[in-house]
Every structure is written in structure tokens, then in C-alpha cells.
């Protein structure tokens, strides 16, 4: 494990707040929280525990707010290849969370086979339309895990817009077809006056260019060199006509490149703003209120490494905990940060499954039981019997 040199003062009592993200490929964030809670309750039966699974705008965003008490709404939409899928969105009064990965994510690809030229964000637009029909007026759009590179053209179609070729026929789905785009018919789009859409994710990235949706991202979605060239040409055509139709210059705005360009469509047609995902999610989940009076915050994710420092959930949780005056530690699958990097990120200690099980494959298969086993060390160091919380050793 990796620990800080000198932990801050903290209250001797109070609850333990469990705020982990998912262990990708093994456990959802709610499952991680449940296993941590089960282990801690066995080790310290009388310690009060509050479970608050978190997300940063990617996979698991809807599940995190549903676990916090939002209502699950299921709707049948089109997946990235056009096949019907049942997607979940979360609703709380006039607020809604729509997760792109639920409808248009890599995990929705049939058989896991990529479809870089034809994958569409249509289902995400259909989810947004459903949220509007439910009366949502503040919609958070999580944009991680996309399978598509269509510039959000499918999202516009899912909301009722039409993309037409030179013969007036509707374009087929996907980024490649955008090369044949001739005009847009937006008369079927909903009235968005009074609706605020917020993109939860990385505010960096533009639609076009070396780091854009095609050249910078499409390879991760299965595109080769020629396919990237085709997609980039389609996105350029789309940007020209979409900006003219929306009267909005959005292609170079931070966040336009998110999710294969879905960010661009949300900026241009929905008047969306972009906010870092974890900060926005912690606000929605009421983290500050739940951290009040806590003696310890436990966060985590499958792999904590230098990429995590760019704003992934555990780092956001640790910094929010520090602002609340509560020490934060992480329980992770694998640790890729030095002790100094963890300290700078406001993590007092990092505990990894690989500390107790060096076989990475077994860590993936048995993540739940191993997490419960890992909590013994956490309890011994941070919840010693009869003494204030704090690490027993460095």
C-alpha cells in the first residue's frame, strides 16, 4: 500500500463514506461500494457506513445517480448499429441524466465488433427526446464510452432532425455517410427553450484536426487509416452544414470532439455547456452533504494511474474530501501512481488488490471477495478499535 507522510487531523467519530467508481470489466460502482461495505462491516461491525457510488460521465453514470435515489426509466432505443436496445436514464423531478454509453456505447456493439464507419448516436438522441417528454429541464449528458464517430449527427436525427442528400433522401447512419450530406431539415426538432443541457466529461478536444474526433479518437473505435480519412471528410462536411443551420460556430470549442463529435452536436443544436464530469456528478450526488461529519472517505477504481490524474473519479473525490476536511484513501485493482503522486492528488493512502493477489486475471475474476479482504488492512490502519481513525503506519 502507499500512504501519506502525515495525515491531517480528523474527527474521532463519524461515518465512513464509500465513494468508489467502477472496476471496469469486473464490478459496477454500486457493486464496489457494496463489497467495501460488506468487508468493513465484518471488520468493524459498529462503524457507520454510507455508500455513495460515483462516476465521471462515462460508463456507469446513470447507475450512480440511480443508486443515490434517482428514478430509473427504461426506454427502447436504437443501439450504435441500429439494433434495438433497452437503455436506462435517471430522473429526479425536472432533472435527468442521460448516459451515451447506455445507447451508443462500445458495450452495445453486437458481439463487441466495431463499426467505425456506420455506428450512430441515434439512440442517444432518442433518450434525450424521452427525457424531454418526461418534463426534464436540466439534462446531464454523460459522453464516455462512445462507439460512434458521427459528429452527433445521429443525435440530431434521434431528436427529430433530418439529414438529407442531394436527392432529398435521408442519409443512412454513421460518420461515413456524412460526406453525402446536402442539407438539414430541423423542423422536427423539439423546442429547447427553458432547457439546460450539460455535457459531463473532458472539456478538451475539438471536432476536427490531429486530436479531433476522427484522427484522435476513431482508432480506438476500430477505424484504420483509410477509415479515419473517410470519417474526417464526413465530419468536415457535417461541420460546415451544421454550423450554417444552427448559426453556431462550435467545431473548435472545447468539448466539441467528445464522444466522436457528439459534443459538437450538443453544443451547436442544444446550446449545451461542458463541465468536468466528476465535479458535476459529485454535485448531483450531494457529496458535500454526505461527507459532512465523516471520519474517512474511501474511493477507488480498477486502475489508478497517471491517466486518473486528468480528472477521473477517485481524484475528484479525494480533492472534494480534502476541501471538506476529511481524509481520503483509495481501494483499487492496480496502483500505477507513486506515493508522491497520490499525495499531490490528496489521497492519504492507496490499497490495491494486487498487493494481496499478484495474479491480475484473478483480481479481475474475484474482485469482489478480494475487495472485502482488502478492507481488513483499511480497517486496521484507519478504523482502529477504541482510538481515533488514522493510519497505524506509513
UniProtKB/TrEMBL annotation:
<dbReference type="Pfam" id="PF02595">
    <property type="entry name" value="Gly_kinase"/>
</dbReference>
<comment type="similarity">
    <text>Belongs to the glycerate kinase type-1 family.</text>
</comment>
<dbReference type="InterPro" id="IPR004381">
    <property type="entry name" value="Glycerate_kinase"/>
</dbReference>
<dbReference type="InterPro" id="IPR018197">
    <property type="entry name" value="Glycerate_kinase_RE-like"/>
</dbReference>
<keyword id="KW-0418">Kinase</keyword>
<dbReference type="InterPro" id="IPR018193">
    <property type="entry name" value="Glyc_kinase_flavodox-like_fold"/>
</dbReference>
<dbReference type="GO" id="GO:0016301">
    <property type="term" value="F:kinase activity"/>
</dbReference>
<dbReference type="InterPro" id="IPR036129">
    <property type="entry name" value="Glycerate_kinase_sf"/>
</dbReference>
<protein>
    <submittedName>
        <fullName>Glycerate kinase</fullName>
    </submittedName>
</protein>
<keyword id="KW-0808">Transferase</keyword>
Amino acid at each position: 500500500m502507499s500512504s501519506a507522510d502525515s495525515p491531517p487531523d480528523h474527527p474521532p467519530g463519524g461515518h465512513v463514506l464509500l465513494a468508489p467508481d467502477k472496476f471496469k470489466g469486473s464490478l459496477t460502482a454500486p457493486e464496489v461500494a457494496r463489497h467495501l461495505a460488506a468487508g468493513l462491516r465484518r471488520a468493524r461491525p459498529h462503524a457507520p457506513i454510507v455508500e455513495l457510488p460515483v462516476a465521471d460521465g462515462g460508463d456507469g453514470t446513470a447507475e450512480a445517480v440511480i443508486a443515490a435515489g434517482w428514478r430509473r426509466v427504461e426506454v427502447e432505443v436504437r443501439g450504435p448499429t441500429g439494433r434495438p436496445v433497452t437503455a436506462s436514464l435517471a430522473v429526479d423531478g425536472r432533472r435527468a441524466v442521460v448516459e451515451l454509453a447506455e445507447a451508443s456505447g462500445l458495450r452495445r456493439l453486437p458481439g463487441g465488433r466495431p463499426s467505425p464507419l456506420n455506428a450512430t448516436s441515434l439512440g442517444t438522441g432518442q433518450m434525450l427526446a424521452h427525457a424531454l417528454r418526461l418534463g426534464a429541464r436540466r439534462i446531464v449528458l454523460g459522453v464516455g464510452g462512445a462507439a460512434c464517430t458521427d459528429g452527433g449527427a445521429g443525435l440530431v436525427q434521434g431528436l427529430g432532425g433530418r439529414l438529407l442528400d442531394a436527392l432529398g433522401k435521408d442519409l443512412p447512419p454513421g460518420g461515413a455517410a456524412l460526406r453525402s450530406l446536402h442539407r438539414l431539415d430541423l423542423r422536427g426538432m423539439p423546442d429547447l427553450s427553458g432547457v439546460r443541457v450539460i455535457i459531463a466529461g473532458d472539456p478538451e478536444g475539438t471536432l476536427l484536426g490531429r486530436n479531433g474526433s476522427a484522427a484522435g479518437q476513431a482508432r480506438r473505435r476500430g477505424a484504420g487509416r483509410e477509415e479515419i480519412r473517410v470519417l474526417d471528410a464526413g465530419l468536415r462536411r457535417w461541420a460546415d452544414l451544421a454550423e450554417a443551420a444552427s448559426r453556431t460556430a462550435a467545431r473548435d470549442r472545447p468539448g466539441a470532439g467528445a464522444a466522436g463529435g457528439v459534443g459538437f452536436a450538443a453544443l451547436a443544436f442544444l446550446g449545451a455547456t461542458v463541465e468536468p464530469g466528476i465535479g458535476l456528478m459529485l454535485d448531483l450526488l450531494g457529496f458535500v452533504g454526505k461527507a459532512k461529519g465523516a471520519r474517512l472517505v474511501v474511493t477507488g477504481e480498477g486502475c489508478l494511474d497517471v491517466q486518473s490524474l486528468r480528472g477521473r473519479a477517485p481524484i475528484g473525490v479525494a480533492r472534494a474530501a480534502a476541501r471538506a476536511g476529511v481524509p481520503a484513501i483509495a481501494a483499487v485493482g492496480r496502483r500505477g501512481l507513486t506515493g508522491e503522486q497520490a499525495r499531490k492528488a490528496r489521497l492519504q493512502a492507496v490499497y490495491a488488490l494486487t498487493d494481496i493477489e499478484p495474479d491480475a486475471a484473478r483480481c479481475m475474476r474475484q474482485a469482489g471477495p478480494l475487495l472485502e479482504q482488502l478492507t481488513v488492512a483499511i480497517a486496521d490502519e484507519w478504523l482502529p478499535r477504541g482510538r481515533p481513525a488514522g493510519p497505524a503506519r506509513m
